[in-house]
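Quick note —
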Amino acid sequence: METKIRKIGNSLGVTLPKQLIDELHLKSGDTLTIEKNGPNLELKPMDPEFEEWAEAYRQANTDYKEVLKELAK
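Predicted structure written out below.
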């Protein structure tokens, strides 16, 4: 699939093809994450439940770093 970068006000944006929107069950207002992977960009639908879990993991990993190192021995 291809899309073009378009000027939107003072910014640039892309539109997603309908086929992709339908396949990923996206709707207006959904949030996508953008990751740079080498020369490529990856767009992924954001999963709020997973983001909440990931933040809790990051916090626990920071708070209990030394304990986790000991448990890993």
